[in-house]
Amino acid sequence: MAANPPDDVEPEPPLWEQIAAQNRQLPGGERLQKVLASTGWGSRRVCEDLIAEGRVTVNGEVAVLGRRVDAEHDLIEVDGAPVGVRPGLVYYLLNKPAGVVTTAKDTHGRTTVVDLVPGEPRVFPVGRLDADTEGLLLLTNDGDITHRITHPSHGVEKEYLVHVKGRVTPGELRRLREGVELDDGLTAPADASQPSPGIIRLTIHEGRNRQVRRMCDAIGHPVLRLVRTRVGPITDRSLRPGDWRELSTGERRSLTEAVAEQARRYDADS
Ligand code: URA
Q: For atom 5 of ligand 1, which residue has the closest CA?
């Protein structure tokens, strides 16, 4: 027969009450297992097991299953190691100025995007911007996300502001939206608008070589200036040309989610 607990020891509240109490503290948060999964700790199932095993703490307290968190502000740790960054992985957002080349090392001695960010740990550009193109470029040592962001058919959206020669007609904008025949095939449907005459906002998710320039050439409006303003969910209007910053935990998560969403859509369509 099980021994009765001593009278002076407060019985622990049932697990469901503990969960409810934690949820009350953070009604707007996200489920801990979802946050863990999106930062690379494994599937949600694996992350639930980590929590159930008592290996995860939130602000120093052992978390229970069902716990909600605010990933930007709560300190989440697995086995005492902070979560958010898989050990050793760094993610930079650079505002690339015109004239800087997107290679790890330039044989002609020109400044490269890698010269503009910290040298250690060594990072690589995520995709490529032409030397003349300006704007947002991610650099990381996370090869997995690089591969998924730049996937030729289900990479994340990239948005550009394009100054072109001349004013674009509604029919030409429609061609950009519906697909333009290039020498390597028809482009996928894109978003295109003209917020002011000769300025196009173009959103594509393919990553073909010089794609925006070639699309604009194809409709008879050569590019005068090309600026990338968004990569997936990542944007920053206040980052000055030549400056860089690290992605926040929230940005890294939303990027991971955008990549997963894009792959799901692609799988559903094919
Ligand atoms: N499309 C281009 O034509 N150039 C770039 O640098 C990026 C997209």
A: 129
Structure tokens at 263: 């792959």
Query: What is the spatial distance between Cα 152 and Cα 137, in angstroms, rounded to a whole number?
Result: 17
Report CA-CA distances (Å) from 213 to 128, 143, 167.
14, 27, 16
Tens digits of residue pLDDT in 115-172: 999 999 999 999 999 999 999 999 999 887 888 888 776 679 999 999 999 999 999 9
Q: Is 262 in the pocket of ligand 1 (CB under 6 A)?
A: no
The answer to whether the CB of 212 is under 6 A from ligand 1 is yes
- Residue 2: the pLDDT is 44
- Check if 208 has its Cβ closer than 6 Å to any atom of ligand 1: no
Q: Which of 112, 138, 147 is nearest to 247 (CA)?
A: 138
Q: Is the per-residue pLDDT at 173 higher than 90?
A: yes
CA of 129, closest atom in ligand 1: 6
22 neighbors 56 (Cβ within 8 angstroms): no
